Amino acid sequence: MQTNKVQSLGIRLSAASRLPLYRQLFDAVVARIHDGTFPVGFRLPPTRALADELKTHRNTVVRAYEDLHAAGFVESTVGRGTFVADAAPPRAARAGAPPERAPMPWSTLATQAINNDTFLRAERFAHPVAAADAIHLNRMQPMHDLLPHELLRRCIDRALHEHGPDTLGYAPTGGLPRLKELIAKDLERQGVPATADDILITSGSQQALDLLARALITRGDTFLVDEATYHGAVRLLAAAGARLVPVPCDEDGPDLDALERLGRGAKGFYVMPNCQNPTGRRISLARREALVEWSHKSGVPLLEDDYASDLHLDLKPPIAALRTLDGEVLYLGTYSKKLIPALRIGYLLAPRALRGRLELLKHAMDLGTSALLQYALAEFLERGYLEAHLKKTLPRYRARRDALHGALLKALPSRVKWSVPETGLAMWLPLPEGPDPETVWLEGQKHGVLVGPGTLNGITEAGQKGVRVTFCAEPPGRLIEGAKRLGRAFAAAERRSSASKPTRQLEVV
Ligand code: PMP
Q1: In this predicted structure, what is the pLDDT of residue 93?
Q2: Exposed site from 72, 130, 425, 489, fewest CB < 10 Å?
Q3: pLDDT tens across 42-51, in order?
Q4: Phi and psi (nearest 5°) for 345?
Q5: How remote is the CA of residue 478 from the centroid of ligand 1, in Å?
Q6: If you take atom 11 of ligand 1, which residue's CA is the nearest one?
Q7: 315 φ/ψ sector (left φ>0, alpha ψ -120 to 50, else beta)
Q8: What is the model's pLDDT at position 74?
Q9: Which pLDDT belongs to residue 16?
Q10: Is CATH 1.10.10.10 the right assignment for the domain spanning 3-84?
């Protein structure tokens, strides 16, 4: 490796390093300040002399010195030079051997609220053993070519440039007013009536779910969910102490007779009418209307999770949201799936009577969602980037869905039948008599493909009988290869299933 020793400072920089020279110089000086080699008042060489020694442009050294100055490590006086500052940021305390102390009794201190089957299942599936080239049909997040990082960079730059330090403080608890206006407009575009006043911006829609669980549930309350549902919601509801009651469904949606029987006194019914996670099912318009009637008659609110909004792969207009039919529906959405998970920006539309309480809770939980990212998203929406992004990505998602579907048709036995989703980023493969989802999941790992076992989603045994495969986290070629591997994993699981015991009945929390 080509290195360059700087005699005057006793440090060594490398032209072959992945870091630019100015960063290496910065790091080397900081390290010497920390280890005491350069004490307070130590004079760094003049920039020109150091640049000559380094055989580099003077600007490189100037940049390193400027960064050292900005970070408070050095002070510069015109005509005198650059000196190590006496208020140089302190180095982290050196770790010595910790003194002997009795260990904390964490096992008894920790809450029992998450010691239930729901969380144990999540833990069991959290760390699949995967080969390095394993194909991810389990992740519901867009892969690199589906993420608009360059557009977001421009928006963050613009937000910082235009709003300066305003972007760096706490945002108002309910959200940035400008972003609330823009989200309301964005929802109107999708046919969901909304004003800025209706909207509470949340840190991902996961927080909107958490807020609703905290605002509605007292330990032991009944909460209604689909027989197989989003496991992230199940965990939050369970942690809040809800007793989850599964509602069966037919091809139009939740079974109304069952709701009449099971719903009395429930604190809510959590549904995903446009694209049920994990099954991809949709609720028909007639059933939506009936659900709204049932909700008011029984006094049980509907929680509508529209996480896959805008992801209409066949470009068919969506069925009217429950929130469009009824202003008392608690409606939540997110920019994670259609745009960028790392924004962590979701939103919640709630009736006036609940808004103050939700905002109080939100403030207690996180003091507000990142102001910088809210400014950036506002810029993104204002510039029309979202619609442009969807125009570009929807055909790609469609192509991936079709690639995976076609390959699965060839790879799986004809006994396995599934529906092709019109919305969203995942397909649900109901399992026929025979292999259970955990065995398919395990065999999948052995064969280099990761899937989502229905065990995570199912509240009932019937609800668990499937695996979810996503088509957003891999390119088409790898989706096709993933389907082939899943075919082999399925065959292996089938061979094992004859000898294996039946699926355990899971405790409903
Ligand atoms: N709802 C559903 C149905 C989801 O699948 C997810 C994430 N997988 C969320 C809500 C939460 O997503 P986020 O917090 O990123 O908005």
Answers
A1: 56
A2: 72
A3: 999 999 999 8
A4: -120, 120
A5: 24
A6: 206
A7: left
A8: 93
A9: 80
A10: yes
CATH number of 115-140+388-499: 3.90.1150.10
User: Hey, where are the domains in the chain?
Assistant: 3-84, 115-140+388-499, 147-383
Grouping H, G, I as helix, E, B as strand and the rest as coil, residue 335 is: coil
- Counting ligand 1 atoms within 8 A of each CB, the residue from 229, 337, 373 with the most, and so the one to mutate, is 337
Mutate to test the pocket of ligand 1, among 336, 344, 423 (most ligand atoms within 8 A of CB): 336
Instruction: Tell the residue nearest (CA) to atom 2 of ligand 1.
Output: 307
Give pLDDT < 50 ranges for the chain: 1, 503-509
Question: Looking at the domain covering 147-383, what would its CATH class be?
Answer: alpha beta
Specify which residues 74 forms β-bridges with. Answer: 84
Strand locations in 281-401 (E): 302-305, 330-334, 345-349
**Which two three-digit tokens encode residue 495?**
């061979």
Asked whether 298 and 325 are in contact (CB, 8 A), the reply is no
Residue type, 395: P
Atom of ligand 1 nearest to the CA of 335: 16
User: What's the pLDDT at 122?
Assistant: 85
Separation between Cα atoms, residue 286 and residue 292, nearest integer Å: 10
How far does residue 307's CA lie from ligand 1's centre (Å)? 6
Give the pLDDT of residue 283. Answer: 98
Residue 507 has a pLDDT of 44
CA of 205 to the centre of ligand 1 (A): 6
Check if 204 has its Cβ closer than 6 Å to any atom of ligand 1.
yes
- Whether 230 lines ligand 1, by a CB cut-off of 6 Å, is yes
Ligand 1 within 6 A of CB of 307: yes
